Structure of Methylthioribulose 1-phosphate dehydratase:
Amino acid sequence: MTEDLRQGLRGAAADFYQRGWMLGTAGNLSARSRADRFWITASGRPKDRLTLEDFVEMDLTGQVHRAPDGRRPSAEASIHQAIYRQVPDAQVIYHVHSVEANLCGHFAVDGLLRLPSLEMLKGLGVAAAEPQVDLPVFPNFVEVPQIAAAMERSFAQALPPVPGALIHLHGVTAWGRDGTAARHHLELLEYCFRYLVQAKLLAIGA
């Protein structure tokens, strides 16, 4: 089962690399191995050729339990910890750095990005016709634990209306009950970002 989790993350990382979302060593992915632990990509590893040794198992307090070859967890592990602590349904988390996500951070108002009122939002759990949905946008602090703390405070008060969040000039994070759901959610958010960028270019309403 553990190997299957890591294999799923490897496949997702290679896919996202090909899409231009995880270039260099950017981005990180994780999956719960049990209620209080998760596997996460190791720091500084190229996402197009991860091996099973490129994942670290840690718990929700930040303690590392398994680290092949002394690997260190992603520098953004605290973001994953915060989401797993606050979102019980989150079993897999994907954090990527796409151009469109970073452009859309500029469109946020008071820490919220209004998503386009598309039918596609049903795939993010919003069933209303032409809904008004705001995605939370968090500041990109130099110290990642500050980002995680801001997310955790916000999520403790109310979870986002869709399974995702944006970090300004940094990237987007999406989660789901399994790898397939997390990938669908990420793809739909990225579609919304591309739509918003095109809408700005064409000077039309979203």
The domain at 2-202 is CATH 3.40.225.10 (L-fuculose-1-phosphate Aldolase).
